[in-house]
Amino acid sequence: MNEFYQKDIISIKDFNKTQLEQIFASSDKIMKLNPIERREICKGNTLGYLFYEPSTRTRLSFDAAMASVGGNSLGISDISSSSTKKGESLADTVRIMSNYSDVLVLRHPLDGSSRFAAEVSSKPVINAGSGTEEHPTQAIQDLFTIRKEKKK
Fold first, then answer.
1. Tens digits of per-residue pLDDT, 36-50?
2. Looking at residue 44, which CATH number applies to its domain?
3. Active site residue 18
4. Catalytic residue at 108?
5. Catalytic, out of 59, 107, 108, 123
6. Residue of 67, 86, 101, 121 with fewest CB within 10 Å of its CB?
7. What are phi and psi of 101, to 5 degrees?
8. What is the pLDDT of residues 51-102, one digit of tens each?
9. Which of 13, 32, 86, 152 is catalytic?
């Protein structure tokens, strides 16, 4: 089984060089698949997202990536239209979204929010920006792109 299965992605510091190379190698393999094969990877799986801050590229990138591997995505990108408007806590919202998804992507303005969400979520959490802290998926994508460009 994949060592990343059911693991949170909270910080780039949680990955060593070997693990990053594994991610890059898997990404290379996926990109070489034809679209029909690619859509089988996450068929029947759902990515949930909670964006407490505005996002265009990050949210759409997760949506597009999940669709390209055959999965679905659902979530809240306008938090003012959710029950947080009525006082629902981050913990409660994360727990609810965990019931509807296989993995949860969170962008939140408070430092430590993704790590907190990972503690209360029944599903893996991906940090898509946590206050003034890092955005590990962006860092991984940047490293992947630099690696790819250097090979040219």
1. 999 999 999 999 999
2. 3.40.50.1370
3. no
4. no
5. 107
6. 86
7. -140, 165
8. 999 888 999 999 999 999 999 999 999 888 889 889 999 999 999 999 999 9
9. 86
Residue in the block written with tokens 């990955």: 15
Q: What is the count of structural domains for the chain?
A: 1
Query: Which one is catalytic: 13, 17, 57, 150?
Result: 57
Containing structural domain, residue 69: 12-151
The reply to whether 58 belongs to the active site is: yes
Residue 5: inside a domain: no
Of the residues 95, 115, 135, 147, which is catalytic?
135
Q: Is the residue at 3 inside a domain?
A: no
